[in-house]
Amino acid sequence: MEKYRDLVIDHINDDLSIVYACDSSAGIGLKENDYIKVDPGLTNALCLRVALMEILSFNAQPKLVINTLSVEREPTGMKMMEAMKSELDIAGYSDITIMGSTEDNIPTTTTSTSVTVVAHKKPESKNNDIEEIMLYQLGNSFVGEEVIENITNIPNYNLIKKIKADKKIIEVIPAGSGGIYSELEQVKKIYKEYEFKLWKDLETLSKSAGPATSFLLLTSYCINENTIDNIAIEKIGCMIRKGE
User: Fold this and answer.
1) 189: CB partners within 8 A, 6+ apart
2) In the chain, what are the domains?
3) Which one of 36, 146, 165, 240 is least enclosed by Cβ atoms within 10 Å?
4) What would the pLDDT profile of 98-138 be if each residue is shown by its tens digit?
């Protein structure tokens, strides 16, 4: 198995790999000790969103969702499972298989969930001869209650699919709790033959992006627009191939 960014890849044969992505969430719901009070269905939907965006950004096809809920089945668990089904429908995967469990032995006072998405991926060829790669941030980084306040202003599934269809886009990487900068650090480990130049301050780049509210884009061309489908996009740096 291979660890790639936040994914685990199991290369089955020359034609197929199994890809795994996961996420978890706790303390966000309507239970007594939840830190942020919000519909638990939204909590589960956003948890799924993170893992699903990781899979879609890697051009893999989701086949199975595993949802382990650390809440009782009725009523909280059922609300969360229904919200997950709705989120899959929005993403275009209404027929995907879902499995999971709930906690019905011990009373719970906080809302907690975890999601794993299992996907199939076919091999792709990559262009390794690009001298300069542009770095962009798509969307703003929101966390906690900011996510709820800006829920309509974050990149959606259709936008990410649209961007992935552009052959000049090299990588589309969802940011998580470590922000855009954490994703850049992982990119540096993969693209060792490049020097990185950033012109946005590290504090801003390091802000948590919560449930994948912003994305790091690697492109082979300059994007002149300030928005894509009403979502902000900003050039934050570049990667230049090191001299021999």
Assistant:
1) none
2) 2-121 (3.30.1330.10), 132-241 (3.30.70.1670)
3) 165
4) 999 999 999 999 999 999 999 999 988 776 678 999 999 99
